[in-house]
Amino acid sequence: MITLDEIKKISKLSRIEFDDQELKEIQSEFRAILNTIDRLNELDTEGVEPTYRPPLDVEELREDIVKPSLDREKILQNAPEHEDGAFKAPTIVE
Amino acid sequence: MIYLAVIGLEVHTELKTNTKIFCSCKNEFNLEPNINCCPVCVGMPGALPALNKKAVEYAIKAGLALNCEINTLTRWERKNYFYPDLPKAYQVSQAEAPVCLGGYMEIETQNGPKKIRINHIHLEEDAGKLIHSEYGGSLVDYNRGGVPLIEIVTEPDLSSADETLVFLENLRALLKYIGVSDCRMEQGSLRCDVNVSLRKEGEPLGIRTEMKNLASFKAVHRAITYEINRQTEILNSGGEIIQETRRWDDQKGRSYSMRAKEDAQDYRYFPETDLPPVKISSEFVRQVKETLPLLPKERAQKYVEEYNLPQYDAQILTSEITIADFFDECVALFDNPKMISNWIMTDVMRKIKEHQTEDIVLPINAKNFTKMLKLHQDNVINQPAAKTLFEHMWHQDSKTDPEQLIQKLNLVQISDEGELENILKEIIQNNPAAADDVRGGNKKAIAFFVGQVMKATKGKANPKTVNELIQKLL
Question: What are the b/e assignments for B356-375, b being 16+ CB within 10 Å?
């Protein structure tokens, strides 16, 4: 059972803010989702390798050959702010 | 109370591939921001990563050089955190099935050889770089974002700052040897986080702290020494160590706690489904193994066996690949390994130490260097002249043929007996007392005459001929 504290922790880690009412709603939705997912645990997966995609052979990987990058203008096009060719972010405090 | 220090390392090394790890943008150290970027490495929605084969190959290469086991199936995870250097808000890394497992590197310590175990080596993408703007705010450059990194994680097998330094120096030399990284700390292509804890003899491990922002090997050494002292003081005064990440301030020579406990990072690793797991066949590993050069130890052994060099000399010559390659080049041109080794061990090494930079740069080439040695061996120039010539070649002119240089610098040895005899006769005439001393068997007086002849010939006289002449005339 997911607790309010866990929801708060996850929202903090995800940088999403909720008021108390929203938190309660999220909690019940969260429960419903987790219950659905929990049903998968009823399957016996003993001895089955986790497979979310079929693997690729190392020989099939991309060759190390340079291709042109995107124009910087295009790279910065959607940035809310940029300066001297760099994205601008609020001051970062360690 | 004396505590034992327990030290473990996480070493990040940028790989020297042509392209980034998940896109075909150029992998280069560049000061102009955001010019090697594309939708993949700036994290635009919908952009899909394509793994660089070379990066996997280099990780395997590092693993083989460090005696690791190579995973037959390697997988990718997302490490989630919010920071502007990470445009996707997650870093693609490896947790469950890294490329290399286990392994070790042997280092020399005061108590003999010691194996430092490697826990694993994994591949990941580098983050972007933040620069502070003079107008406030932070500027973000993603040229470095997506550059392939390997993280080498050791077991906590190191027990002092000195030992850690030896390990890092050996590791750097090894990675440069196998050509997977430049390992330039000042450009950030080699970075290292250090975990330190203390324990009493026979007791379990203590609580550890992690130190970040170590920009040089010297800083690593200072930070470890500082941290051991700090923890010792806390424990001795009955306090407790807090598990935390600390930031080293090299200018102030102290570290600061970076994050309080309640903000402890939770990276919420989960599978990166944009990237398929990669199967690594034993055939591929075998092919990579074939590209490995002789490693320092094997190469030193070869020098001892083939060239009859002392073990110590062979070890010094092979400690850096630039030096070892130079030695090999010289030996191929001039068949006197002992003489080449002696000159490299003394004069060349001294010059390198004088201009200490992270990368060893040799201004002289093997062709002219060995020509100089040959001139000396053939008695065309004597020892002091050879040293003068070497200095000149190193600092001023490494291009001109030494045969021409010795003419230009007037260094050719005088071996002509007639000429030397005349010079010596004059000196004997002017120093009758010293001449009597020699006749009386005074060895010091012989040295006096040799010195005087050298002075008169500006150091160019053949010392052997001069000695013979003194014997003859007195």
Answer: eeeebebebbbebbbbbbbb
**Structural domains of chain B, with CATH:** 4-285 (no CATH), 294-362 (no CATH), 417-473 (1.10.10.410)
Name the CA radius of gyration of chain B, rounded. 30
ipTM for the assembly: 0.87
Share of chain B above pLDDT 90, in %: 58
CB burial of A45-73 (b: ≥16 within 10 Å; e: otherwise) equals eeeeeeeeeebeebeebbebeeeebbebe
Enumerate residues 6+ apart whose C-beta is below 8 A from B117. Answer: B102, B103, B104, B154, B155, B157
Measured between CA atoms, the residue of chain A closest to residue B148 is A64
CB neighbours of B434 closer than 8 A, spacing ≥ 6?
B445, B448, B449
Q: Are B61 and B288 spatial neighbours (Cβ–Cβ below 8 Å)?
A: yes
When pLDDT is cut at 50, 70 and 90, the band that residue B413 belongs to is confident
CA distances from B87 to A87, B264, B352 (A): 11, 21, 42
Whether A66 contacts B25, CB under 8 Å: yes
A13, A53, A84: residue with CB nearest B273: A53
Contacts of B102 (CB under 8 A, 6+ apart): B67, B68, B69, B117, B118, B119, B120
CA distance B32 to B110: 46
Burial class (CB in 10 A: 0-12, 13-18, 19+), B45: exposed
pLDDT in tens, B332-375: 999 999 999 999 999 999 988 887 777 788 888 899 999 988 98
The three state secondary structure string of B64-125 is: HHCCCEECCEECCEEEECCCCCCCCCEEEECCCCCCEECCEEEEEECCEEEEEEEEEEEEEE
**Terminal-residue alpha carbon distance, chain A:** 35
pLDDT tens digits, residue range B418-450?
A: 778 888 888 888 888 887 887 777 777 778 888
Q: How far is B362 from chain A (nearest CA, A)?
A: 30
Task: Verify whether the Cβ–Cβ distance B56 to A58 is below 8 Å.
Answer: yes
User: A26: distance to nearest CA of chain B, Å?
Assistant: 19
- What does the DSSP assignment read for B353-382? HHT--SS---SS-HHHHHHHHHHHHTTSS-
Q: Is A80 on the interface with B (CB under 8 A)?
A: no
Instruction: Identify which of B50, B60, B293 has the alpha carbon closest to the alpha carbon of residue B177.
Output: B293
**3 state SS of B19:** strand
A77 to chain B, any CB pair closer than 8 A? The answer is no
Residue corresponding to tokens 């502070």? B132
Query: Which among A54, A59, A83 is the nearest to B139, CB-wise?
Result: A83
